[in-house]
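Pasting as-is:
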Amino acid sequence: MRSDHRAAHDQAAFRDREALQVFVDACQVLVGQLDGREDESTALMRLILMRVLRGAEESSSQRATTNFRVARVVKYLEETFANPTIRLASAAQHVDVTPAHLDRLLKDHTGLTFLQQLRRIRMRHAERLLLTTVSSIKETAWACGYTSPGSFARDFRRVHRCSPREWRDLRIAVAAHFD
């Protein structure tokens, strides 16, 4: 019973960190949109967003989980997601557990399996690249650790219900509307 409560708590904390990460990503995009503008309200908004981003960086560096292996493997995935050869076995070896045990730990503490966690990290990075660069979809796929633009597009469509190009075009149109 206690481990169920701990797992539920870890999953809620993980969802909170995810929401914060989405907010931080949005703030980074807004800061980029505000660069170069000089009116007073824009400067104030930029200052607020920069403070939020600094606070978020500090809190994300102090991630709390009840299992040190989960924290280590999530950090490992965030640092190595662009490596297309990353596998459950190599991540498990990094934290000194069996692959099956690592997958179970991740599922219990984050609500996601190893592969789901890796895809989530890659998709979050892809979103940032699509918003902040003019890289092609193929280049974005490679930068996110995919060896095939087709599998990248398939995973992206599963998450966002549209292609990467449609997603980028929609975000650009929304940003242009607010300019």
